[in-house]
Design a protein that fits this description.
With 314 residues, the protein is an alpha/beta fold. The protein is 43% helix and 18% strand. Helix 9 packs parallel to helix 12. The termini are far apart.
Length: 314
């Protein structure tokens, strides 16, 4: 067992059974977190039974409540980082469920490498996931681990910076040395920080044996809005994304999915793949150019209307 101390940081919004199951699985890990910190939006919707049920299972279990207007993808997590005092901080979402009892152990033991700034786990598609979602998870989270550095930019391009706060551990001292997550960021706080780490000589580990169940079956409009926000985040941070366009990785995903559907005997699903991919690209294309769009259109395209109200942009 490694000796790194660990905080698990979980932002929540109207949590229920899924958070209870996440906490139950965390309490059964071979490496029990030293602290579990929940940053909850809207106190009125947080069931007290969750804390009552798990208070005795962790050395420290804390809940902090914030107003919905205060939530920010980067700022809220940064607040949690400030509350933590451990060597490592594992950021998770309330709907990510560890597959087994080795998640925290495997995600933290890789930090024996002193050049490692962050590590993220493998996301598996659930049983109810669509075929395209299953392939997307396999494409983004393959079954082989890898450590990424600036040396991989020529081969991997923008995927060098890929890291997901659905399940990602950050070395706390490296985190603060680089200023932490961007505050007032619409989306993509994890990849922006990972990019900064790579640019400053740190490495990022992908741990394929640290697995969580996590997937979504988004509609075309949901994908458009999600990718619009992705495009906005990239447009706002040219220091990270200017020379690393996402289109190439997106095209590889689409063509790979199409070939996989044919091999699985479902060529009829290629049409829906094309439609969904068109929604993704349209959202991304418009998001990268949001400054040229009318404010009303921006608010119609985003998945985060409250973010625009808080930041008064668009």
């Amino acid at each position: 067992m490694n000796s790194f101390s660990l905080t698990v940081l979980i932002p929540t919004y109207r949590p229920g059974r899924e958070l209870e199951e996440l906490l139950r699985r965390l309490s059964r890990q071979k490496k029990i977190p030293d602290r579990v910190l929940i940053l909850n939006t809207e106190e009125a919707y947080f069931p007290p039974r969750i804390i009552d049920q798990f208070r005795d299972r962790f050395p420290v279990l804390s809940v902090f409540h914030i107003e919905k207007s205060q939530f920010d993808h980067g700022g809220t997590r940064h607040l949690g980082m400030q509350f933590s005092d451990t060597d490592l901080v594992l950021c998770m979402t309330q709907d990510a469920l560890p597959k087994d009892c080795y998640l925290t152990q495997r995600l933290t033991e890789v930090f024996r490498d002193p050049e490692l700034g962050a590590a993220y786990g493998r996301q598996l598609a659930g049983k109810r996931s669509s075929m395209t979602e299953r392939f997307t998870r396999q494409f983004n989270y393959p079954d082989r681990s890898r450590v990424k550095s600036a040396d991989d930019l020529a081969e991997l391009g923008i995927r060098t910076y890929f890291c997901s706060d659905v399940c990602a551990v950050w070395r706390r001292d490296a985190y603060f040395a680089l200023g932490g997550f961007e505050r007032h960021v619409i989306f993509n706080e994890d990849m922006i920080l990972a990019g900064k780490m790579i640019q400053n000589g740190w490495k990022i580990a992908y741990c394929a044996d640290a697995e969580v169940w996590h997937s979504h079956n988004y509609s075309g409009m949901q994908q458009l809005r999600r990718n619009f926000d992705l495009g906005v985040s990239q447009a706002d941070h040219p220091e990270i994304f200017r020379d690393l366009p996402s289109e190439g990785a997106g095209l590889k995903l689409v063509t790979g999915t199409a070939r996989w559907l044919v091999r699985q005997g479902h060529p009829e699903k290629i049409f829906s793949l094309i439609v969904m991919s068109g929604c993704k690209y349209a959202g991304y294309f418009l998001g990268r150019r949001y400054r040229s769009l009318p404010g009303a259109l921006v608010r119609g395209l985003t998945a985060s209307p409250s973010w625009w109200e808080q930041n008064r942009q668009g």
